[in-house]
């Protein structure tokens, strides 16, 4: 048995066989052939298998995520049936007596380069389709497995170097019982999506992909951040008991599902859920969420070949608002950049994309992308309690410009006869230190703040949260962070505005009493964290914790803060 320590990214315990999710080696040695017809037959067989897989993936994606996500696989199927691509490959096999792999590689690369260099954006997008599809065909020609998360149809634990957001979105929780990765942290997007899917996950193991073979028996302990490879029968029995105990604990938490969130001294706070898709709302409601505190709209834009239309976005936002049935829904406008890229947008390559052209900066320079989203949101506002927030705001000018565009679209829609709510609150994410420092000035103009601690911490500490070499500096409880949070909360309350937190810190059991004492109004977290947080808050006195505020803010280290808060709350 091998025991690997990583980072507990999503709670729970999973026991199943390993499924390696990795792009296979598609290199090959060129050889002379004797029979072109045999090569064409091999090509046709690889094409047919690829079509069958893509049909299965398209059906699964349509059922799980809807028509818009399935469109990418419809486009892939069209590529596989296009004689403009297939005929030149077979012609090359015949005329040059080359193996199918060589003909496929040469013709595919020719088309990919040609499409990439076209002026028309739609045609440039076809290059990505050809690249994805021909990789699949090449894998079948070489006889190597081409893994697809959506094709998994037995209980497994996914093992990968990392999972992209689109990979994670394809995971079927019926079969994928958990995952473990080489890299990542609690705030990486794969970890956040795992919590949304409510599957146990351990990330940052460094080399789990090297240690695990396909079909090894695996235990993922998402409570302690441990992965066990080929455990003994005694270990399996032990962890099955832990699994059962955790299931019982969840049943106890579930009894509070429909209860309001009150502290021990009778103070009420709001517990909300973070979501990435309309389908995630079910998890928020099933876990007793009183609101959606963060709807990450970028997932509408991912896993596609083109921008979502205004109508597609409207339907998604409307669905979330209607499901929440009058409960607040805070929607974050498009936040791409950093580690969230869109292949079909020709964004510049940057030395430091996390501090570069992303989020509101991108939207303000690309109103053709920004305005349709705002129009869709405004139209959807008639169906529920919508609040809109802009991400990555560093200056008052950015907020004013974004709000002006929003109001401009609101007037235009009203003139066109659309029903628009007049009670939409407009706020910002506080994730840049400059904004937290002058929160008093922002508080006069915004309707609310939502603190994005994932980025605020890394920017304040100058430590990339994805870089394991400096991960020790990612310190949520550092006094510098607490002082910034206090500044934001005090500034908002002085203007009669509310403050939420949608970073992962909001659901952290050590942070919760600190945040309650600082006066945070809304805690937004992964759905699975809501009921444990409600249970914890019922045992905490807000007044008592508030009396410790000055002491906490004057401390020098995160360790001192943690030791103090544990002493006072245990």
Short description:
Helix content is 48%, strand content 14%.
pLDDT < 50 runs, ≥5 residues: none
CATH H level, superfamily name of the largest domain: Phosphoenolpyruvate-binding domains
Biggest sheet overview: 8 strands, mixed
Q: Into which percent range does the helicity of residues fall?
A: 40-55%
Mean pLDDT: 89
CATH topology of the largest domain: TIM Barrel
* Total E-strand runs: 16
The largest sheet has its strands arranged as: 1-8-7-3-4-5-6-2
Count of helix runs: 23
Number of discrete domains = 3
Would you mind describing this structure in some detail?
- The structure is a single chain.
- This protein has 570 residues and is of the alpha/beta class.
- The protein has three domains: 2-22 and 149-251, Glucose Oxidase, domain 1; 36-142, PtsI, HPr-binding domain (Enzyme I, Chain A, domain 2), CATH 1.10.274; 255-569, TIM Barrel (Alpha-Beta Barrel), CATH 3.20.20.60.
- Helices cover 48% and strands 14% of the residues.
- The chain has helices at residues 36-65, 67-80, 83-96, 100-116, 121-142, 165-170, 189-197, 208-211, 233-254, 281-286, 310-324, 359-365, 367-380, 396-415, 433-437, 439-443, 453-461, 479-494, 511-518, 527-537, 542-546, 549-553, 558-569, and strands at residues 2-5, 7-10, 13-20, 156-160, 176-181, 201-203, 217-221, 226-229, 270-275, 292-296, 328-332, 385-390, 425-430, 448-451, 498-501, 522-525.
- Strands 1-8-7-3-4-5-6-2 form an eight-stranded mixed β-sheet.
- α19 (511-518) links the parallel β15 and β16.
- α1 crosses α5 (121-142) and α2 (67-80) crosses α5 (121-142).
- It is globular.
- It starts with a strand and ends with a helix.
- The mean pLDDT is 89.
